[in-house]
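In response to reviewer comment 3 from the previous cycle, which asked for concrete evidence that the modeling workflow produces usable outputs, we include below a single protein chain processed end to end. The sequence was submitted unchanged, and the resulting structure tokens are shown without manual editing.
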Amino acid sequence: MRDVQWRCRSWFIAILVGLLITACTPPPPVDAPAAGDSESAAPAAAESATGSDEVLQVWITWGDNPAQIQALFDQYGEANGVTVQVNAPVETDKVIAALAGNDPPDILVTGGPDNVGTWAREDLVTPLDDLISTSGIDLEDIYDAPLSQCAYQGSYFCLPWGTDTYALFWNKDLFEDAGLDPEQPPQTLEELVEMAKQLTIVEDDGTISQIGFVPDFSWSHLDLYTAMMGGWWYNEDGTEITFTSDAVVNALKWEQQFYCNSDYSTDEIQRFKSGFGDYSSPDNGFYNGKIAMMVEGEWQPGPNFIQNYKPELYYGVAPFPYPQADPGRANTSVVSGSVVMIPAGAKNKEASADLLAWMVSPDVVAEEMVANFNLPSSAKAAEDPRFHENDKFEVFLNLMGDPNAVAPIMSPINGEVTTALGQIEEQVLATCADPLPLLEAAQAELQPQLDAALEQ
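The workflow returned the following structure tokens.
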């Protein structure tokens, strides 16, 4: 989870962190990094050990361990007689100012692809097709889903650098306490609903002491639910907003049933959730046994999360359930994460392209993603035995390579679209309102904006 600001990697960023992935990007095996002063994170100007005057600047919008990332890029610098300076984490406002100015970095890494379409339309990032062919980058080695997030109007404007996806986590102790088989997680959405009821404990005074499933814990997963319903909130090429499609409406209604029922009030759920500890702490709602099932990413089984905060936790990981009526959607997942771009104003595109090619090479992808407990976007990197030492991580590897893995569809007004969706989801869950009229109104307002953006 390189950046909870991204996936913390898609649209819900607008709700959680004011848009950065992610990324969260999120989003590394740590909680969303604080929006620190990027200047303080940057290393001081250094001279190359080879005496070369060439300095390449790499800006990254995530990174709780800049020293580890700098050490990785030092390998490239030493092998090629250049100095590579890593600045991480860099605030999004500074990134935008640099892209629009005269002194952008040579390489930009963001927690997710949210802004790629907008920046491509505004000629702020470089189309990579020619550079890919001359730099020997093997696109066939990159998994389809993470690669597809970088395509915009027929060209690639970024390449994935590792990626994230999500699955179902369940607490086996709580399953046993409820009389459920701890080795049998729900297979269908309908089973998840029924199991969640059995795993929810409501006291006589109406307060919740344990809950089976909260659909927006730790943040929104409307993207996964919509994909599982067979669609997205854009059409395939991102030219039409499809808020009113069955997939979006049904996803919101499916979420809504966990808030809007006769067993407890929506206010009680909010009160219950407010008692959880920090995301990265032993008091995380799943770690402390308050939530029996959750949707989370591949970083969770890693050394900086469950292994660190609750190593004794008895839990399992499985693909998120599919609709009972459509078993063909089994193993559907939304795959997205860090992407690498070359700013349009980069001074030496050839040098930037060489560095980019090194970054997405299998050995480097493997080294960085093992360090962060994230998914390798390279199929050759995924053969590294270190990725197969943890059977729970293996679930995510399989999901990423499954034919039902999808990447988010983006548009030039992605920020506006995701903000509107986030507001609708929040209202639908808090008030039990019918989502369709809200979606109709938002679609009518946003489609002309999208049309205008596409005409520019």
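The CA atoms of residues 55 and 80 lie 11 Å apart. We consider this sufficient to address the reviewer's concern, and the full set will be provided in the supplementary archive.
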